[in-house]
Fold these 4 entries.
Entry 1:
Amino acid sequence: MVKKPTLIAFDLDFTLWPFAVDMSAYVAPPFSKNMNGQVVDTRSRKIKHFKEVPSILKRLHHEGYILAIASRTGDPEAARQLLKLFNWEKYFTYIEIYRGSKITHFKRFKSESGIDFSEMLLFDDEHRNKRDLDTIGVMMIMVIGGVTHKLVTEGLDKFSNSYEQK
Ligand SMILES: [Mg+2]
């Protein structure tokens, strides 16, 4: 039997988009849409997300997963603004964006949803988050170079296989 997670969470920086939203070396918020409908920052630079993200969110939402954001950025406002401008807000049931260990973010998901840690899966690019989440039993898939359909499929397989071993 294929065991699936109930809730799938994503990090933001270097997972859904290729920059840190709170670092001026990358971007200068606030963001807006220009006349061509492109998302830009105050330097009029185009703000891009990793290519496959919109279709990944659409796919997982369609497949019935509960989707969430867990981000430790120091600029939650800018992050939320991008979620809105990219039109991704509609996919996420839970959004937790603030500094500190991601254990806090996941405890929030658990208390709000009633879903157990063992039913959650996270895609994230930072090892320190994996170390933290290991301690509460949330599986994390390491992201390198942005999330892709291939990685999502591999992550879901890994989640299912971990259950078979139990
Ligand atoms: Mg990150």
Entry 2:
Amino acid sequence: MPATEQQIEQLLCDLVRIDSVTPWLIPGGAAEANVQQFIADWMADLPGVETWTEEVAPGRPNLFAKLPGTGGGPTLMLNSHADTVGYANWRERALVPERRGENLIGLGAADDKSSCAIGMLALRSLVERGVRLKGDLIVATTVDEEGASIGTIHMLERHRPDAILVLEPEGLDRIVVEHQGFGWVDIIVHGRAAHGSDPDMGIDAIAYMGEVLAGLAELDATGFGRGEGGLSGRTVYHTSTIRGGTDYATYPSSCVLGIEIGTQPGEHLSDRIAEIEAIFARIRERHPDFRGEVREQINRNPFMPTGYEPLFDAIVAAAEPVLGYRPVAAGLNAWGDSGLCGEAGIPTLCYGVLGGNYHAPDEWVSMPEMVAAVTIVENAIERFCGVA
Ligand SMILES: [Zn+2]
């Protein structure tokens, strides 16, 4: 029996109520163990389904549920993430799901507990209908996607399914076949500390960082950060953090600027870093005592999967009768764990329901899309893995 809208909403509300803030992003965050336990308990009564956890970090397990196939078909993994971002801006309401018109409001209602629920409900329906798949189905809920992706990195070191469907809420009308990457980069300007009344000794690192900032703004206006018209849109570049100096009376000996840079499919972060080093060279022509340095903190490459066509075709064929139209291949101006799966050489796509206000108060998900998604994903699994 396919789940009713009421049952789907009930499950999603249960998931939203369980705090699973990623502690990588918000120190002291609740982490994922409780929500993973809830999901495991929810699946415990499904005959033939094996569930287990793999500890990624203390109190932070990935959870797997496997419906073994009869053989002769490809293994498909559904991958959604069990963690959420923090909720300081709407503390009283974030974990209290609320139905508003066609939408359900709550932290993670879309990103990504909608996807956890879709995987759980599709698996339950396949089992209850007695469908015997040829290939194995693995429903994985991983940790830390909103942090450093240690959950999916850990999973990819231990599992190699024939394809991965990363469930993320992008809307059922599009199947994400590429998305941008990103880098977190520190720009460090080294100065020289000196008594505030000794300008010949002091080298003002903060003032020099001002020149770097002007150079970055100029780059941005003249082409840096412009995507070349790919599916994934405009590359993002923005400043994030800045610190420097010790006190009013002293020339600052260093200034550190943190920035985020998006990279488009086909681009590398090193291309962007070379552009920053060219700014340094121009500043040095005017100020020979300028010293700058770029330190790469995190680099996540863009998502450019290959070999995904059989999964793509399965989703389109499953979706068309439900939606009344065919979802199209699309890019995404953001990054997800799909980037790591694609980079591991596994045919990967990213798909999910319509939602909004991600990482912000009043995050919402479309309940009509939730209902449609469960049927679509269930049918796409049958098409991809094959039915015995
Ligand atoms: Zn997400």
Entry 3:
Amino acid sequence: MLSIDHLTKHFGGLPALNDVSFDCPAGRITTLIGPNGAGKSTLINCVTGVLVPDKGSVRLEGTEIGREPSYRIPYHGIARTFQNLALFPRLSVLENVLSGLTVEAETGFLKSIFRPPATRNHERRLRLKAMEMLDRFVLAGKADWPVGELSYGDRKRVEMARALVSGPRILFLDEPVAGLNAEESAAIGEEICRLRNLGLTILLVEHDMDLVMAVSDGIVVLDSGELIAQGSPEEIRHNPKVIEAYLGRMSVTA
Ligand SMILES: Nc1ncnc2c1ncn2[C@@H]1O[C@H](COP(=O)(O)OP(=O)(O)OP(=O)(O)O)[C@@H](O)[C@H]1O
Ligand SMILES: [Mg+2]
């Protein structure tokens, strides 16, 4: 579904990604792991138009998207969350989730000023969609709260809700359970598996190895911008290179 080929990105001469190639098969969870600074977020940023890669290509079902600007990315059915949350703290939970519907919210200049009945109906449908998504993430009771007043766990779930509200085909999740407690992490893990079972293609970045080993169909390992291994969770768990570069430095219980 998504093919990443020879992707390369330097910052000031230092390689953050060096000639990285792998595929994300349709309807599967592919997980990107590796030490801090390995290039995981850089890869998601290159694939979603936040950064322009120096070299290489990103193809979605054969169509090159590696140089698409970020505002075009949702039109391809792609959505993402950000490692450091990219919410609007003063806007309400509902408004933040509605901001994930920009593609569907386009009504044209005149219609947005005069708001004829069809436009008002359209807006009502969008709000309903957003409320359904809030319900799924147990946030409906906080729809009117400013996001800045929410707990960290709630804010992480608002990010997920905003990414999902447009009904994407591909989802990139950059550390969705970082900073969450065990119960909150398990709930997000279940949601990620449910989305995969509904047919979504997912690229997950995560350090929580219990979650990674439990949900991943395939794992790709980056270290200092290089792809050092890829395989099934079982293969990766026992790969000496991965143990030396990453897993050996963590306590793996899964
Ligand atoms: N905008 C930027 N400008 C300069 N250097 C950057 C930029 N973004 C990332 N880097 C550098 O690129 C390298 C890869 O960073 P990246 O954020 O992709 O790592 P990561 O694998 O996501 O790490 P973490 O697990 O800590 O999130 C790091 O050395 C980082 O300092
Ligand atoms: Mg990162």
Entry 4:
Amino acid sequence: MVELAVIGGGPAGLRVAELAARAGFEVKLYDQKRSVGRKFLIAGKSGLNLTNAARRDEFLSVYQGADFPRDLWAEIFDRFDNDALRDWALSHGQETFVSSGKKVFPESMKAAPLLRSWVQSIKAAGALFQLNHSFKEIEPVDDGYRLMFHTPEGESEVLAKRVVFALGGGSWSRTGSDGRWVNSLSASGISVSPLQSANCGWEIEWPLGFLDEYEGQPWKNIVCKAGKLSLEGELVITKYGLEGGPIYRLGHELRKMDSATLEIDFKPTFSVERLLQKVESVRRNLADELSRRWKVQASVVSLLAYKYPEIFTKEVVPKADLAILAEEVKCLEMVLQSARPIEEAISCAGGIRWEALDDALQIRNYPNVYACGEMLDWEAPTGGYLLQGCMSSATWVAKGICAEKFD
Ligand SMILES: Cc1cc2nc3c(=O)[nH]c(=O)nc-3n(C[C@H](O)[C@H](O)[C@H](O)COP(=O)(O)OP(=O)(O)OC[C@H]3O[C@@H](n4cnc5c(N)ncnc54)[C@H](O)[C@@H]3O)c2cc1C
């Protein structure tokens, strides 16, 4: 019987294997792909934003989820925080630096050297990697669990005393994170909230002809609002809708709405009155005058013209109409159709529900079975918070298991 089976070789599973193997556990790490850390390598393509140098409170405030256990998460973070993660990267030969938005990157801006050193050290500590093993089922047996895997050679059965699931979310399935575990764990009576796209673009039905002129153009220095949350930043007009930091970050609020509606303030430093003053004398050439006097992009004026064709076709524009347009520029409501498909999202919301876990992140109806990483029901924006959440929760699980063994 394997002493500890870690299933999933992303950052969360690797971190558990690293700590447990070093603590003297007999560890076997299973992954359905031919190699581990594939999504981690993909994250490396944009420089590998390992964590964020934000202060503790600010850092913790970005995490969300249904019934999210804020106090427990704070303890989890404190056990392995953003400084500890930077020290850990250094221990694998990767100095880090802080970039804009307090994002922390390895100086090499690559994931491969870190992954290589990490995997070598896990193997050197004695953990065995069992690749091409696709987890299918878990069943309790005396003193442990029977795990069923699908392998290229056929079905394979493994008996394990303790199990850690670190199966990731459901985006970028070619990296191995296909989210199929949701069905197997749900069938085993583990409560899972459906995976949903997070940190992704949203779809909008643009007016006919709009994209011919404006696809790919940014809206800079805007404030986006959804629910109670307002964020400054930049969005980009895409074929299917909008992309960009603020909309990624507002995803949690947007998904809560019956009809996802984004409000955009295109002139955050101006009041409606000030905008109105600037255009009071305008009577003709409305579109050109608005662009020039308000310094807003033509795409914004174009949206106003689609929404208020009757104003834009008037010979002489009355002040009351200008006031309507000023109000719109300060708060243009955009009804979104849906989030982009999960496959292309950077991360997932949903996952194993908190009610299914105890404080050790042990699955309540499966003693000695734990879960960590993106497969838990939390979400966070980009900026280094995702990898930090995976690494902190994995450290928490591993240290809990090690403490229990040596108690
Ligand atoms: C394009 C992109 C860029 C990103 N950039 C960043 C970034 O810069 N900073 C950041 O913080 N985050 C980033 N992320 C998110 C981050 O990579 C993930 O949150 C993180 O990898 C999740 O770690 P994990 O270990 O929980 O799961 P994963 O990394 O998804 O690993 C899960 C592992 O489980 C295996 N697995 C799944 N199902 C089975 C099964 N049934 N049987 C056996 N094995 C299975 C998979 O093969 C995989 O190896 C990015 C994500 C994407 C897609």
